[in-house]
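User: Structure please.
Assistant: Input sequence and predicted structure:
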Amino acid sequence: MATWTLEQAKNSFSEVVRRALRHVPQVVERGGRDAVVVIAREDYERLLAPQGLVEFMRGSPLAAAMAAGELDASAFVRDPDFGRDVAL
């Protein structure tokens, strides 16, 4: 992700757009702080698209870790212990 000052972005707007169209978000600063992000229309529409539960779960960091072999199903075995006895 590239960062531009507002003046740089004004002077090189075609370059800002060209980079954004390559699916690389472009941050524009105003007053020394991030003000806006320029992204491709396709990326914007993808962000706005409703996401179903299955797609949400597939995109989770947990799913990525399992796919990369960093975790396996044994990490999610429930402990059968009910805890301590409590007198009510």
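The chain has a mean pLDDT of 92.
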